[in-house]
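Weekly puzzle thread! Below is a chain. First person to post its structure in token form gets bragging rights.
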Amino acid sequence: MKKLTFRYSSMNAGKSRNLISTYYNYKELHLNPIIVVPNIIKNKKVVSRTGEELDAISFYELLYEADINNIDCILIDEAHMLSKNEVIDLNDITIEFDIPVI
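Winning reply:
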């Protein structure tokens, strides 16, 4: 069974850079990770302080437009901006589709 993992630390600790690194680790294994940002974030990108950036989709797009059956891992940036119900939705995705959420 996959799990819902919450990584946290102070600002400028490298969380976005770690998320980008995790994305590429999945890609090297020929898996399909997806990066998601909360709906409140208008610029759908994950950007690290070192200049690395990747496109993301909104939480809404994950729930209503993405083909969840073709996703191997869901990576969330700025998870502290998610609502309680959105976190519950992620937990449900983890259980129902056996997809890890980080």
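Puzzle host: Confirmed. Bonus trivia for everyone else. Strands lie at 33-37, 45-47, 53-55, 57-58, 73-76.
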